TrEMBL record:
The keyword Transmembrane applies. The gene is Termicin1. The chain crosses the membrane at residues 31-51. InterPro entries: Scorpion_toxin-like_sf (IPR036574), Termicin (IPR024723). It comes from Reticulitermes speratus. It comes from the Eukaryota. This is Putative termini 1.
Length: 93
């Protein structure tokens, strides 16, 4: 036994402090891992949302329908070139 700050210090105190430190370290690690998992899930959700809703993208279905309505019998095909709809049609001749 030895005296530290006026109190008797023995191996039992050391074991108790070590046990508390171990529990705090485990709790801190699990909280950190939980936080990282939540952030990873949020990142995935945001990336999936952005991938499914690109800004100003050409909607192929509406492009096709619009071209078909505008060019009726002369309409051949439609496709998206970046964010622009391109209609392919036959001109009378």
């Amino acid at each position: 036994q030895r005296r530290v700050h006026g109190e008797t210090y023995n191996g039992r105190h050391h074991q108790q402090l070590h046990s508390v430190h171990q529990r705090l370290r485990k709790t801190s690690t699990s909280a950190t891992m939980r936080t990282l998992c939540i952030l990873l899930v949020l990142l995935v959700v945001v990336c999936v949302f952005i991938a499914q809703h690109p800004a100003h993208a050409c909607n192929f279905s509406s492009c096709w329908a619009g071209c078909q309505a505008d060019h009726s019998i002369n309409f051949r095909r439609a496709y998206c070139d970046g964010q622009h709809c391109v209609c392919v049609f036959v001109t009378g001749g």
